[in-house]
Design a protein that fits this description.
The chain is α+β, with helices and mostly antiparallel strands. The chain has two helices and four strands, in the order E-H-E-E-H-E. The chain has one domain: 2-Layer Sandwich (Alpha-Beta Plaits).
Length: 85
């Protein structure tokens, strides 16, 4: 049976937290299989709130270290999804 693990991040102030978030994502790039980030952009506004979805793979303990490092950043909320197929 295969497993698929998704980590969702809600970043409440992406301008303030972007540097630290990027540092952690770079440090744990070896477990990040796919990464999708988005925020609202209009002609007049660029939202400070952003969402990042990570598909992670590898050793479970490495994925947990990534989650722990992200959880230590103020202004980030983490949600998890697990699929078995």
């Amino acid at each position: 049976m295969n497993n698929l693990r998704i980590i969702g991040l809600l970043i409440t102030d992406r301008i303030k937290e972007a540097g630290m978030t990027q540092k952690v994502l770079t440090e744990y790039a070896h477990v990040i299989k796919s990464r999708l980030g988005f925020h609202e952009v209009t002609e007049n506004v660029c939202s400070r709130v952003g969402v990042v979805l990570l598909q992670v793979s590898g050793k479970p303990e490495e994925c947990e270290k990534l989650e722990k490092a992200l959880a230590e950043i103020r202004g980030i909320e983490i949600q998890r999804m697990y699929f078995e197929y």
